[in-house]
Specification:
Number of helices: 11
Radius of gyration: 42 Å
Strand content: 5-15%
Order of helices and strands: HHHEHHEHEHEHHEHEHEEE
Shape: elongated
Structural class: alpha/beta
Helix content: 25-40%
C-alpha cells in the first residue's frame, strides 16, 4: 500500500506535466506569446474612435414628418382605389352576367320581354336607304319615297360568316349593341351560319365547320352581351326544320345547343327558329326544340323569310307554345301581306306584299311586341346577292295595330 506524498505520486508518473503554482483545476493558461492588453489603453482607444451624432435640426424633423404623412396618404389613396375597383368589378359581376340570375330578385334576360317599353332599332346604312339615295340621284322621286318608307321600318340584321367572319362580326355587333343601348332601342340580329346551312333548299347554302361555328357564335354572343339586353338573337332560320331532309339531326341539335349556351351565358335574349306553319308538325318541332333545351332561352321564332299568313302562324305558334309549356315566340311578318303561293314556291314568287309594320301592342293585359324579320323589299336565295337580311321578330300573343306597308 502506497502512503507516500503527492510528490511521490508525481514522481511515479513522470509523463504528467506539473501544474504551475496558483492554477486551479480546469484552468486554461494563455500561451506566453499572447499578451494581455492594457485596460487603460483600450479605454483610451474607445474614447478616441467614438463618433458623436449631431442632433437633427427642427426643420429637418418637420420635413421628415411631412414626408411620412405623404407616404401614408399615398398608401391610403392606393388602397382606396383598389377597394373601389374591386367593389365595382364585384358589383358588375353580381348585377350583370350569369351570376345575376342567381341573386334574389336578379333579372334573367330570358325571362324578360326584350321589346317591352322600347322602340325597335332602325339600323343605319341599310340597302333600302342606299337604294333610296340612288333613286333620288337618278331623278326618280316616287321610287325614292317608297324606298325611304322601307328604310324607316325597323329591320333585323342578318349575320353570316361570309359577310362577317370571325374577327369582324364581333366589332360589327358591338357597334350595333352600343347604338341600341344608347338609344334604349331593341335591336335584333339573325344568326345564320350553321354547318350545311340551307341543306334542304341549297339556295343559301354555306355555313361553317362545327368548331369554327361555335367560335363564330361565341364572338357574336360576347359582343351582343355588351348591349345589356338591347340586342336579341333569332337563331338559325330553318336550322331545325330542315334536319329531316338533310339527315343531320344529331349534329344540328348539338350545334344549336352549344350556340344557345353561348348566348345564354352572355345574357342575350334568344329565340330559336321553329320553321313555319306549312312545314313541320307541332309535335315534330316541339321534340326538336326540347332536344336543344329551348327552355333555357326566351322562346322560338316562326315564318322567318317565309310567306305564311299571320293567322296560320298564330295558330301554329300557339299550339307549339302550349306543347312547350307556354314558351314565348316571335313571328316574321316581313313579306306575308299576300296569301302564301299555292305552288309552294318560296324563292321570290311573284305577287308578294309586305306584311304589317312592326309595333309593340297591348294584348291580354301584357305588353308584347310583334314584327317581321325579313328585310322588306329584299329578295331571297340565289335571286339575292347573299342570304336574306331583315326587319325582325316579335313575341306573341299579339294583334297588328297598323295597315300594310305596301308592295315590295
Amino acid at each position: 500500500m502506497n502512503t507516500g506524498s503527492g510528490d511521490d505520486e508525481a514522481a511515479a508518473r513522470p509523463d504528467r506535466p506539473r501544474r504551475p503554482a496558483g492554477d486551479l483545476p480546469g484552468h486554461v493558461r494563455r500561451p506566453e506569446h499572447v499578451r494581455r492588453a492594457d485596460p487603460a489603453a483600450v479605454a483610451a482607444a474607445n474614447r478616441t474612435g467614438r463618433q458623436v451624432r449631431a442632433e437633427p435640426s427642427a426643420s429637418a424633423v418637420a420635413e421628415a414628418r411631412r414626408q411620412q404623412r405623404r407616404r401614408r396618404r399615398r398608401t391610403w389613396l392606393v388602397g382606396a382605389v383598389v377597394v373601389l375597383v374591386a367593389a365595382l368589378v364585384i358589383g358588375i359581376t353580381l348585377t350583370r352576367g350569369p351570376l345575376a340570375r342567381n341573386l334574389p330578385g336578379g333579372a334573367d334576360p330570358q325571362e324578360t320581354n326584350p321589346f317591352a317599353g322600347r322602340d325597335l332599332h332602325v339600323a343605319a346604312g341599310t340597302q333600302a336607304a342606299t337604294a333610296a339615295d340612288a333613286a333620288r340621284s337618278a331623278g326618280e322621286p316616287r321610287e325614292a319615297e317608297v324606298l325611304d318608307r322601307l328604310a324607316d321600318v325597323p329591320t333585323a340584321t342578318w349575320l353570316t360568316p361570309e359577310a362577317l367572319p370571325r374577327g369582324q362580326v364581333g366589332t360589327f355587333v358591338r357597334d350595333l349593341a352600343e347604338d341600341a343601348l344608347a338609344a334604349d332601342d331593341a335591336a335584333v340580329v339573325v344568326v345564320y351560319g350553321i354547318t350545311d346551312r340551307d341543306c334542304s333548299g341549297e339556295l343559301s347554302a354555306g355555313g361553317l365547320p362545327p368548331t369554327d361555328y361555335a367560335a363564330w357564335v361565341g364572338e357574336i354572343a360576347s359582343a351582343a352581351g355588351t348591349g345589356d339586353g338591347h340586342v336579341t338573337a333569332v337563331l338559325e332560320p330553318d336550322g331545325l326544320a330542315s334536319t329531316f331532309d338533310c339527315g343531320n339531326t344529331d349534329q344540328r341539335v348539338s350545334q344549336l345547343a352549344g350556340a344557345i349556351g353561348s348566348l345564354v351565358d352572355a345574357d342575350v335574349p334568344t329565340y330559336v327558329d321553329a320553321g313555319h306553319s306549312n312545314w313541320r308538325s307541332v309535335d315534330e318541332m316541339a321534340d326538336l326544340l326540347r332536344r336543344v333545351d329551348v327552355s333555357r332561352v326566351r322562346g322560338f321564332s316562326t315564318n322567318v323569310a317565309a310567306y305564311q299568313s299571320d293567322a296560320d302562324e298564330r295558330t301554329y305558334a300557339e299550339a307549339l307554345s302550349a306543347a312547350l309549356g307556354g314558351a314565348h315566340y316571335v313571328i316574321d311578318s316581313g313579306r306575308n301581306g299576300a296569301p302564301s303561293p299555292v305552288s309552294g314556291d318560296w324563292c321570290n314568287p311573284s305577287g308578294r306584299l309586305l306584311g304589317q309594320q312592326p309595333a309593340a301592342v297591348t294584348d291580354g293585359g301584357c305588353r308584347t311586341p310583334g314584327c317581321g324579320s325579313s328585310r322588306r323589299g329584299r329578295a331571297t336565295g340565289r335571286a339575292a346577292e347573299d342570304p336574306p337580311r331583315a326587319p325582325s321578330g316579335r313575341s306573341g300573343p299579339w294583334r297588328w295595330p297598323s295597315p300594310p306597308a305596301g308592295e315590295a
